[in-house]
């Protein structure tokens, strides 16, 4: 699913909203997302890497999502903000052409890696609730292989953008444009590709996750007993599982809330004739795209809010850095 937006049409909708006000608002919003996502996801990856007790499969998968989310503040947001500020693509030549192709390629990989990580996280939680006394379904060794697999599987779905995106010269400046119909034929083939990728890596995982979490919640409800809580190892493990489950449910819900509007808009824009798409559609398209980008800044906040072990590990990490500097 192409996670980049053209957006040029929305900036000219002066009858609906002031283009300059829209640009200023977008610049502030994307700058804030850039800082929060860059700092937050870097801290999540560093915390898991530096804390042996956090190197469990579920935390490794969350760190994998954080690494995929880092592709946005590193490769996507700076270029997008530059386009907003100057009205055109600033970098020309071979480097500019390469960046034009790499941006949508990495954006697609980030999306696919994230959704695969969410599915693996949910499978891990399902196994922890369904068979809590058995060995983990996803061991550390298996988890490492699965993480590598998420990136390998994502590459083919971003690969077409390395060919279809090109840097073009216009009178008003350079533009990084998707020329799918020039490379692969009719534009309808792009719509088919988008729909297929959306179904495979968005809607099917969404249904699978909803089914698994429904089963998990039903299972936990059956396990809940009234009265005083015992201090047995099994009960303590169950409480830990519930805390982790709350965090993973929050991550999944946030992901789909952020991405569903843009997913629907993106597919719609390639099946509805462009002359039927008015200013309201393009402005809502920009809002939906902003919501999708917000997701990469939300995940670190959720992890630090729901899990005390992340906060404690981060605090120890900061204290260690202060001691080294002192």
TrEMBL record:
<feature type="transmembrane region" description="Helical">
    <location>
        <begin position="70"/>
        <end position="90"/>
    </location>
</feature>
<protein>
    <recommendedName>
        <fullName>G-protein coupled receptors family 1 profile domain-containing protein</fullName>
    </recommendedName>
</protein>
<feature type="transmembrane region" description="Helical">
    <location>
        <begin position="102"/>
        <end position="121"/>
    </location>
</feature>
<keyword id="KW-0812">Transmembrane</keyword>
<keyword id="KW-0807">Transducer</keyword>
<feature type="domain" description="G-protein coupled receptors family 1 profile">
    <location>
        <begin position="40"/>
        <end position="303"/>
    </location>
</feature>
<feature type="transmembrane region" description="Helical">
    <location>
        <begin position="28"/>
        <end position="49"/>
    </location>
</feature>
<feature type="transmembrane region" description="Helical">
    <location>
        <begin position="142"/>
        <end position="162"/>
    </location>
</feature>
<keyword id="KW-0675">Receptor</keyword>
<keyword id="KW-0472">Membrane</keyword>
<feature type="transmembrane region" description="Helical">
    <location>
        <begin position="190"/>
        <end position="216"/>
    </location>
</feature>
<keyword id="KW-1133">Transmembrane helix</keyword>
<feature type="transmembrane region" description="Helical">
    <location>
        <begin position="287"/>
        <end position="307"/>
    </location>
</feature>
<dbReference type="InterPro" id="IPR000276">
    <property type="entry name" value="GPCR_Rhodpsn"/>
</dbReference>
<dbReference type="Pfam" id="PF00001">
    <property type="entry name" value="7tm_1"/>
</dbReference>
<feature type="transmembrane region" description="Helical">
    <location>
        <begin position="247"/>
        <end position="267"/>
    </location>
</feature>
<keyword id="KW-0297">G-protein coupled receptor</keyword>
<dbReference type="InterPro" id="IPR017452">
    <property type="entry name" value="GPCR_Rhodpsn_7TM"/>
</dbReference>
<comment type="similarity">
    <text>Belongs to the G-protein coupled receptor 1 family.</text>
</comment>
């Amino acid at each position: 699913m192409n996670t980049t937006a053209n957006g040029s049409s929305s900036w000219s909708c002066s009858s609906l909203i002031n283009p300059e006000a829209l640009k200023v608002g977008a610049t502030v919003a994307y700058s804030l997302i850039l800082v929060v996502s860059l700092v937050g996801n870097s801290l999540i990856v560093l915390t898991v890497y530096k804390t042996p007790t956090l190197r469990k499969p579920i935390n490794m998968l969350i760190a994998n999502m954080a690494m995929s989310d880092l592709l946005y503040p590193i490769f996507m947001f700076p270029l997008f903000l530059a386009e907003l500020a100057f009205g055109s693509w600033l970098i020309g030549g071979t480097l500019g052409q390469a960046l034009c192709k790499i941006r949508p390629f990495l954006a697609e990989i980030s999306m696919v890696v994230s959704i695969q990580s969410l599915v693996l996280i949910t499978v891990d939680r399902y196994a922890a609730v369904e068979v809590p006394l058995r060995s983990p379904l996803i061991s550390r060794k298996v988890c490492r292989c699965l993480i590598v697999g998420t990136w390998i599987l994502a590459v083919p779905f971003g690969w077409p953008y390395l060919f279809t995106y090109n840097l073009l010269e216009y009178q008003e400046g350079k533009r990084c444009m998707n020329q799918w119909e020039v490379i692969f034929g009719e534009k309808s083939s792009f719509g088919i590709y988008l729909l297929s990728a959306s179904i495979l890596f968005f809607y099917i995982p969404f249904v699978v996750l909803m089914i698994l979490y429904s089963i998990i919640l039903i299972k936990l409800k059956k396990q809940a007993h009234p009265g005083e809580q015992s201090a047995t190892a099994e009960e303590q493990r169950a409480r830990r599982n519930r805390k982790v489950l709350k965090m993973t449910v929050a991550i999944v819900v946030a992901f789909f809330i952020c991405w569903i509007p843009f997913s629907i808009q993106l597919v719609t824009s390639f099946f509805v004739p462009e002359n039927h798409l008015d200013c309201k559609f393009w402005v809502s398209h920009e809002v939906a795209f902003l919501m999708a980008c917000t997701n990469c800044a939300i995940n670190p906040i959720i992890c630090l809010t729901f899990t005390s072990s992340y906060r404690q590990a981060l605090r120890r990490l900061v204290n260690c850095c202060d001691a080294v500097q002192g």
